[in-house]
Amino acid sequence: GSTDAQIKQAYFKLAKTHHPDVKSDNSDDTVNFELINEAYQTLKNPKARKMYDRTGLSADDQNSAGVGRSKFDHEKEKARKKE
Predict the structure, then answer these.
(1) CB–CB of 48/41 below 8 Å?
(2) How confident is the model at residue 70 (pLDDT cuts 50, 70, 90)?
(3) Is 6 a residue whose pLDDT tops 90?
(4) Would you state the pLDDT for residue 27?
(5) Residue 30's pLDDT is what?
(6) pLDDT top residue among 68 and 50
(7) Contact in structure between 60 and 41 (CB atoms under 8 Å)
(8) What is the rounded distance in angstroms from the CA atom of residue 47 to the CA atom of residue 60?
């Protein structure tokens, strides 16, 4: 696997290349920039990175799927949706 420093270096290189302010004429770069950020959010967090290695879910997908949340958290969310 890659070290934290390697991940950070790769992120900054890709983010700089695909940043919307640099390439505002291409909507694909905006999408790529968002995907790059999502990947970095997953890989920079050791817990989310470990979960990604096991499940293939990004940090955002893990949150949406409720991975790592307790049953109490799920029940609280259900109650909020009913209101």
Answers:
(1) yes
(2) very low
(3) yes
(4) 75
(5) 82
(6) 50
(7) yes
(8) 13
Residue of 37, 42, 34 whose CA lies nearest to 2 = 42
Residues in contact with 61: Cβ distance below 8 Å, sequence separation at least 6, in sequence order: 67
The span from the CA of 30 to the CA of 77, in Å, is: 31
Residue 67, classified by CB atoms within 10 Å of its CB into exposed (0-12), middle (13-18) or buried (19+), is middle
If one counts every other C-beta atom within 10 angstroms of the C-beta of residue 73, the result is 11
Q: Measured between alpha carbons, how far is residue 79 from residues 13, 17, 47, 62, 76 in Å?
A: 43, 43, 28, 21, 5
What is the pLDDT, as a whole number, of residue 2?
A: 86
Residue 63 CA to its chain's centroid (Å): 10
